[in-house]
Amino acid sequence: MTRDRMLTLGALAAGLLFLSPVLYSIWMSFQTANAYYTGTLDFTLRNYAVSIGDYGFARYLMNSIIVSGLVTIAGLAMATMAAFAFARWTFRGGNLLFAAVVATLMIPSHITLIPNYLTLARVGLLDTYAGLILPAISNGFAAFFLRQYIRGIPRALDEAAYMDGATPLQVLWRVIVPVARPAILSMGLFIFISEWNNYIWPLVAVSDQDLYTLQIGLARLYKLNPGEGSIDWPLVMAASTLTILPVLLGFLLVERHLVRGITMGAVK
Amino acid sequence: MSAIQLTDIVKSYAHGPQVLHGVSMDIRDGEFAVIVGPSGCGKSTLLRLIAGLEQVSGGDITIGGQRANDMAPQDRDIAMIFQNYALYPHMTVRQNIAFGLELRRVPRAVRTARAEEVAAMLRLTPYLDRKPGALSGGQRQRVAMGRAMARDTTTFLMDEPLSNLDNALRTEMRTEIKELHGKLKATIVYVTHDQTEALSLADRVAVMKDGHLQQFDTPEAIYDRPANRFVAGFLGQPAMNFALARDLPGLRAPGDSIAGLRPEALSLHGTAPGGPALRARVTLSEMTGSGVILHCDTDAGRMTAVTPRHALPPDPGALWLGFDPARVHLFDAATGTRRPAPAAQPHTANLSA
Ligand SMILES: Nc1ncnc2c1ncn2[C@@H]1O[C@H](COP(=O)(O)OP(=O)(O)O)[C@@H](O)[C@H]1O
Ligand SMILES: [Mg+2]
After folding, report:
1. Residue B177 CA, ligand 2 centroid: distance in Å
2. Contact at 8 Å (CB) between A235 and A47?
3. Ligand 1 pocket, mutate which of B11, B12, B44, B207 (most atoms under 8 A from CB)
4. How big is the A-B interface in CB pairs under 8 Å?
5. Mean pLDDT across the stretch B99-107?
6. Which residues cross the membrane (chain A) (predicted)?
């Protein structure tokens, strides 16, 4: 056996190992509860029908897409503009401000949980989409990461654009953003997935069931049948599959651009 | 109207030393002005001040009769070509060239036509749909030129635009830039550290050193009447020979003068000529193609002379370098400033024989 083939087989095995829990849960989501507990085989789409129909997962899916999507778009916009300012302008207090941005990276999110809750309660934004979205928009890590990337872009590009007649916003939008696209897309993916998996904040900020995100809905599935003494695992797995599927699809869509962006940067 | 007036321009960078110490220049409308000087003397800084990419620390900039000190670069209506071209890597050649027009809301059809016209002028038509990453150095340079030319402006700033090109291409582009200036009737401020480029391109040359303007005049005047010893030594290839004036025969000059003699002002003789001359011994000769550069030891120190190959004296061990005292430049030994041309001493034969 050649070395190459052994490497390929090894990689395949490792891939399967990582994939196995996901594949297992997808497989389980097509079983009936009865078949699962008795150890027989079955095939049904009922779990999907039930999670969507009886437990409102369609609604949760929509909420998750709205919240994560808007957090990603607004967060990226904020972080990109902040990064551009920090990378390209010197202004009074700029360094102090940037230090403050970096400092936010060192604060565990649980510490801000209660102050954020109290603030939103006071302005009456609990149980709204805005309450879910607003606290997540300011993202110190994204601002820091993008600033570092933009600093690596030659300033002469900005200057050429200014000479061509661009305003600062045009320089940002027409030159910096396209050149920094791989970094911005990677950051966007990162923000989207973090927000998609966010559990604790939606849990405290929302009690109206119509505003539940997928993670909250998923957790509720356990709690909903406590009396029965056993959990309907195939149903939970169907809901989990609904939860990971959009992220997986999204990743496959963006991934192509990420790779292209990375090689484009390498040869320049 | 795009005359540029610089009045007592001072520039110091934050946390840095002063870079420009009161530079005044009056660049006429339609003039090709070349700023030349050694690396680090402040040429780029001066250009960036005109562009508006840096703020002056003192003095005034007037462009087309309008005070421009506080104008943003995008409002100055100036096109600039950067040393490393600074092409937009995500845009095609066509988009790069048309970007300035797009920002000025020129309709798409018009700007595309304009980009293609400019590209044709610069022989870039086959590359219109390529991105800068897929172009050679010379092609990138031409795109940078095209981007400036497509703009409807009459003021161009160029910061060492040819310094990244190989020799043949540089000579070719030099000719093209000169022709372009004739065609566009534009005001061009061109920065270079290459004195050949400066002399061949300029209507007027500004020589700078350490943030001070040394002289701003026509290439002929700069070459024939350099304002000081630095200018005299900086322009000319091979460089001017310097010697103590009192060591040169047949010269009437104040005792503390430095005399400057261009290599081409020295004539070679196998035997002592009639006029003033220095006895010389060749230590090294360099072939330049059509001619030879001779490095000689003389009584007045080392001298460089040039001669066509066929005129080489038979015995390089012993020859005479003759000169016309009227072609000797004199400089103050202490300050280096130019002194009035020397007079030949009457009735002196060749003394140093
Ligand atoms: N942004 C800057 N900050 C501080 N010093 C600078 C800056 N830009 C240039 N300088 C300094 O100014 C001097 C002149 O630079 P420059 O104008 O680029 O010279 P040149 O183009 O003639 O080589 C140099 O000593 C350089 O180190
Ligand atoms: Mg420079």
Report:
1. 19
2. yes
3. B44
4. 63
5. 95
6. 59-84, 96-117, 129-150, 171-193, 233-254
Residue A26 scores a pLDDT above 70: yes
Residue B199: pLDDT band with limits 50, 70, 90: very high
Radius of gyration of chain A from its Cα atoms, rounded to whole angstroms = 23
| Ligand 1 atom, smallest distance to B159 CA | 21
Backbone angles phi, psi at B334, to 5 degrees: -80, -50
> What residue ranges define each of the domains in chain B, with the CATH number in brackets?
2-228 (3.40.50.300), 238-339 (2.40.50.140)
Dihedral Cα B110, B111, B114, B120, nearest 10 deg? -130
Which ligand has the nearest atom to the CA of B21?
Answer: 1
- Quote the pTM value: 0.86
Helices (H), chain A: 3-28, 33-38, 46-53, 57-88, 94-104, 109-122, 129-137, 140-151, 155-163, 168-171, 177-179, 181-196, 200-205, 214-224, 233-267
Which of the listed residues B9, B10, B20, B45 should we mutate to test ligand 1's pocket, taking the one with most ligand atoms within 8 A of CB?
Answer: B45
Residues in B closer than 8 angstroms to A164, CB to CB, are 74, 79, 99-100, 103, 147, 151
Mean pLDDT of chain A: 89
Q: Extract the tokens encoding B113.
A: 């036509």
Report the residue of chain B nearest A156, measured CA to CA.
B86
Report the pLDDT value the prediction gives residue A37, as an integer from 0 to 100.
Answer: 80
- Alpha helix (H) residue ranges in chain B: 43-51, 93-103, 108-121, 137-150, 167-184, 195-201, 219-224, 229-234
Mean pLDDT of B318-337: 92
**Domain span at A126:** 3-267
* The pLDDT value given to residue B252: 81
Contact between chains at B88 and A166 (C-beta distance less than 8 A):
no
- Residue A158, Cα to own-chain centre: how many angstroms? 31
When pLDDT is averaged across residues B27-46 and rounded to a whole number, the result is: 96
Say yes or no: A20 contacts chain B, CB-CB below 8 A: no
Nearest chain B CA: its distance from A174 CA (Å): 10
Q: What is the mean pLDDT of chain B?
A: 91
Q: Quick check: B347 pLDDT over 50?
A: no
In this predicted structure, the answer to whether residue A42 has a pLDDT above a threshold of 90 is: no
Sign of CA dihedral A67, A68, A74, A79: positive
Max Cα separation, chain A?
A: 75
Based on the structure, what is the number of domains in chain A? 1
CATH number at residue A239: 1.10.3720.10
Q: What is the pLDDT of residue A253?
A: 81
Percent of chain A with pLDDT over 70: 93
CA atoms in the 13 A half-sphere facing the CB of B88: 28
- For residue B166, pLDDT over 80 is answered with yes
Average pLDDT over residues A234-255: 87
Q: List residues in chain B touching A: CB distance below 8 A.
A: 14, 51-53, 72-74, 78-80, 82, 84, 86-90, 99-100, 103-104, 133, 147, 151
Which residues form ligand 1's pocket by a CB distance below 6 Å? B 13, 16, 19, 37, 39-45
